[in-house]
Amino acid sequence: MRHYQEVLKWSRITGLLLILWGAMALQFAQAQSRNILIGQASSIECVGQSMMYTAEISGIEEMHIDFSKYSWSIVSGNGTLSSRSGRTVGVTWNDNNGGVIRVIYAGQITVEMTTYNITPATKSSVPHPNPSVGMSASQTMVAAGAAVSLSASGGTSYSWTYQPASGGIYPIGGSGSSVTSPALYQNTTFNVTGYNAAGCASSRSVAVKVIKKASVASQVTTFNNTYNAQATPGANGTTCRWYNAATGGTLLAQGTSVTIASSQLINSTVHVASYNTTSGVESARVPQKVDFVRVLPVIVNASPSFLCGGGEVSGKININGWTNQVNIPEGDDAGNITYEWFNASQQAIGSSQQLFLGSVYGSKTFYVRVTLGINNPISSPLIPFVVTSGTQPNPPAYQVNNCGETVTLTGANAGETYHLIIEEREMDTWHQVANISSTTGVFNLTSAERLSSTIRYQAKIANGGGCYSVPQSIATPTFDLSNYSIGKNPSAAQCGSDLTLSINNIQGYAHFYSEYLWATSNGRSFTTTVPTLVLPQ
């Protein structure tokens, strides 16, 4: 009996288990479905811009989902996917026709003994078109420190940035269609992003180049009236331009190696700019100081005899135009000058600024040369120096009226001066009392200065070197009748004819006398102003 009861007990338990197992099997056999939902990050979708799409499964928590089992594809349309798997992908449509995307989930999902079949999802999309943005700059090449005006079109609002060549991106304030750049000192790219009413955007950029200053020596020295000017254009320059002023002025030349004359410059300074021949833009100008040096040998310490025919003389080398700032390497002695003297055969005879040249009669040729600097010396060519001694002027010719009331000297050359020295006799000794000079040779004297037994003159001509001619002595002549005779013309008196009497041998002294008194044996007398007398018939 007891055994029968145990068997019945286990039979009941077994039956219950079978019922539970059947219920569970039935439940598995009837799996449920769940749908994939596709969401997008923004309601605004634009052509060419990636839109993020996210997949979710309705009614199933994320902890039960394997995101790697999502598979995405484009069913229709011209677009690209950022990825083909994963919960989130980016979709970029290449035109405003848009298209359809599809996502599936590989396999089933079981949650607490419940199995779910996952239904794929599709989503169509039509993106907004982007604005057609245009951009321009007032100039695409400028000088350093200049600004440009920027303009944009095709959008309803804009954002502006610029990127200099040295790096970094910087905003330009304003959302309008035009802005002004900051001052530019390097090549810079400007970018504008234009937005339409839908919020879609397009960007454009413009590059502006900056032409840099030319590289040129700050100072040069030349011994010629012209010099070869050389410069290197700065970045974006194709050549150089040379001016005689810092702004404005005259364009002297164009090129990287040109010839500049001293006569073209103002204050011995040339101004050079980089220039782009294609754009016609030039940089700010850089000054270059030019020392046009003149080597000027001159005569010094000339002896009096040198000025009047020949004698000892010295020479000195002067330098005109050098500012003692020759463009030589740092550490060099900028004030160092080397002097060289050569004879007519160009053999060296001295190395000082001033040199004794010996005695010179007539003309003698020497040569000189000057070198400036040490490390990079600049030498002048051999410069001829012709030394010519002075010549003594010829004595003047003279004419005296009324014993010196007027004295006229003649015979001087251009640049020479007449001198009339008045001497007075005291106790048989003559002393100079006046030395009168004149460029015309006419001397009007006072009554006290006229010729007499105690007054005489010395007449000379002086040249520019202070050399005097041999003096001409002018004194009152002694009228000794024994030195003269009276001539007659005709030699024999004839009735009915005039008789002309003249004093012989007085021609050289006639200008000393203002009157002549004539007397005859019968008591008649005559006065003339010339040494002749005409007796009427």
Automatic annotation (TrEMBL):
Pfam family, one: Ig_7
Domain annotation Ig-like: ranges: 135-210
Domain of life: Bacteria
InterPro entries per the UniProt record, alphabetical: Ig_7
Protein name: Ig-like domain-containing protein
